Amino acid sequence: QLQLVESGGGLVQPGGSLTLSCAASGFLLGHYAVGWFRQAPGKEREGVSCINNAQDRVYYSDSVKGRFTISGDNAENIIFLRMNSLKPEDTAVYYCAATSRYPVSTREMCMVRDYGVDYWGKGTLVTVSE
After folding, report:
1. What are phi and psi for residue 46, nearest 5 degrees?
2. Comparing C-alpha atoms, which of 93, 89, 108 is closest to residue 20?
3. Predicted local confidence at residue 23, as pLDDT
4. Burial 22-53 (b: 16+ CB within 10 A, else e)
């Protein structure tokens, strides 16, 4: 079965850290560009960070730049999102998505809705609160 599964969400205090994981099954993430997206209640989905298949080009939205880091482990077929200095406004359901589109613009993958996405995960909830 071809799917992406996110994990690692939870409740964290402001200023804290979390690492989200996006695990692929049925296909190799190293052949895909992958992005992390989030959607807060009542808001539109936002592209947070996207990485190309070679994992040498990365895009971060201005809202997370300097605080979040995207990385991949091809041996484990997982993409991570390390989130530091979390703020209440980071509260959202976080989704990962993969596209086989090549070449890919990591900026456009994050900013253009459904930029050739082949797979979406079901999301993991991150809540930043006291």
Report:
1. -125, 135
2. 93
3. 97
4. bbbeebebeebbbbbbbeeeeeeebbbbbbbb
